[in-house]
Design brief:
Length: 160
């Protein structure tokens, strides 16, 4: 039986977004990828807000489609010889993974560019963000190939 997860989504742009469907997508991904109970959240924002976050936390003064803010050692590799900061389970016995931030306007543009439905693009971005929270990356070709393969498999498994 899959571990119980706590997933919360919010919509800061007022656009029509099926948060419950995205929460179900996140649940499927977490059930496939994690053997323990976890907590995570995601938020749908506008381009201005994601640009602000991208500038503040990554040093890039530009919009992007998705950002992940990890709270677990899985998503925070050690820098140089430093030991990763340990994030113990909270009193609720959940591993707190972090938050995924998705730009709604960028998702709309990308859905048009890729000729796919907006809900599919939002699912794809959410899956991508969750995989980052779980330690996946695409810094080199090998990592990118592994992450893209996993994304595609999870997209197929989460079709609504």
């Amino acid at each position: 039986m899959p571990a119980p997860h706590e997933i919360s989504g919010s919509n800061d742009v007022g656009a029509v977004v099926d948060l419950e469907a995205l929460e179900r997508t996140a649940s499927v991904v977490l059930n496939r990828e994690v053997d323990e109970a976890v907590e995570m959240s995601f938020v749908i924002v506008d381009d201005e807000r994601i640009r602000e976050l991208n500038r503040k936390w990554r040093g890039y003064d530009e919009t992007t489609d998705v950002l992940s803010f990890g709270l677990s050692e899985r998503s925070k590799p050690a820098v140089d010889d430093e030991v990763p900061f340990p994030f113990p389970k909270a009193e609720d016995d959940l591993l707190h993974l972090g938050e995924v931030v998705i730009s709604f306007p960028t998702a709309e543009r990308q859905a048009l560019e890729h000729t796919r439905a907006l809900d599919e693009e939002l699912r794809h971005l959410l899956i991508h963000g969750i995989l980052h929270l779980l330690g996946y990356d695409h810094a080199d070709r090998e990592e990118e190939a592994a992450m893209r393969t996993r994304e595609q498999a999870l997209l197929s498994e989460t079709r609504l």
